[in-house]
Amino acid sequence: MRIKNIKQKAFTLVELLVGISVISIITIIALPSLSKFVIDMRVDNQISELYRLLNIARNASVNSGQNVVICPLVANTCTNDWTREISVFINTVNDNTLDLPADEIVRVKSALSNNDRFQYSGGASLTYNALGNLTSNTAEDTFSYCPEGVPDASRGIIISISGRAYISQDNNNDGIDEDRNNNPITCI
User: Fold this and answer.
1) CA atoms within 13 A on the CB side of 131
2) Which one of 74, 82, 97, 121 has the lowest number of neighbouring Cβ atoms within 10 Å?
3) Tens of pLDDT along 114-128?
């Protein structure tokens, strides 16, 4: 009988340890960047969703010829807690409360599911009139999205008195978004 020489292909212990070491080093280098990437994506998604909601509200006000309110509702009344569901509704009585069936809900944005938060400089609600302008007397209002524990990743949406919404940008390349007057988007 002849015995055939069978060569087995496998890693040696040294090769396995070197491979694990290389993968560990790459993971240690990549994790901080991955974490920042995930936070930036979450912030960008929330800002984009709110931006679309503002545009829907403005279009609804022009199309309906009525005031349209954006606010978080509790018992059909606007509140300052912008981490809750944000509702857009046509407000026929102009009292910042949802009076069904006279008022019509246009869209609802789901509540934040983490400890991040929205802040709005205009108070408990934002109202567009039939021309698509803000009904407030301020020159601009700002929505700020504040990711928990990472204030430098905050972004905002600035709404001019004409009703146009502008997403904040990092104008001076310092890694922090600024409004249209180059003031940093901050969270309190």
Assistant:
1) 5
2) 74
3) 888 889 988 889 999
Residues 75 and 79: their CA atoms lie apart, in Å, by: 10
State percent of the chain over pLDDT 90: 48
Predicted TM-score (pTM) of this structure: 0.81
Cα(133)–Cα(57) distance, integer angstroms: 11
Domain boundaries, the chain: 13-167
Name the architecture of domain 13-167. Answer: 3-Layer(bab) Sandwich (3.55)
Cα 121 to Cα 129: distance, rounded to the nearest angstrom: 19
Encode burial over 18-52: b for 16+ CB neighbours within 10 A, e otherwise: eeeeeeeeeeeeeeeeeeeeebeebbeebbeebee
Give CA separation, 137 vs 4, 133, 161, in Å: 92, 11, 8
Rounded Cα distance between 109 and 96, Å, is 17
